[in-house]
Amino acid sequence: MTARTHDLAAITALGGVALLIFTMQITLGTALFAIVANQLGGIAPDIDQPTAPFWRNLPVGGYFGRLIDKMLGGHRFISHSIVGLGLFGGLAWLFLRFLQPSIPHTNVMVVWWAFIIGMISHLVMDTFTKEGVPWLLPLPVKFGIPPIKDLRITTGKMGETIVFITILGFDGWYVATHYAKLLAILHHQIV
Q1: In terms of pTM, does the model score above 0.85?
Q2: Where are the alpha helices (DSSP H) in the chain?
Q3: Dihedral of the CA atoms 127, 131, 135, 136 (nearest 10)?
């Protein structure tokens, strides 16, 4: 999947979780930080790809991208597995705990969960591609849905565009049908 599809899937997953189970009050800063963390989580597994937009936007990103690619075993290896989810989740938690003194009114647990939701959405979306995802690494099996590889989506092709439009349509429908709850969250739970 391309970055735009991962971005949309990550924010859709975060919105769905927030509307279904979110009951606590958070600061506006926490909400904004959570959205940024979610979007970073949505593209984090592709840090193992030296040509990823993240690396292209850094002055020496190509060098670091190739280094990280080798450290993580190449594209769709460690970073696209449950092991990678645990590794990235642990590093994100350490980073947020390090930042906590400078962002005292931010609920880092909410921000961390937003990051994890973004990462999980990435892995789920890539499970629908021809390449599949090695969920159970170190087992050398890539899982894909549907099981027949020829029926899966090719990144950047028409199938992905259809998925993107479908998610966008779902978002419109979901927001329209849950408008009152969304409004209540915005007015009463974000302070």
Answers
A1: yes
A2: 3-21, 28-43, 53-56, 61-71, 82-99, 108-127, 158-177, 179-184
A3: 150
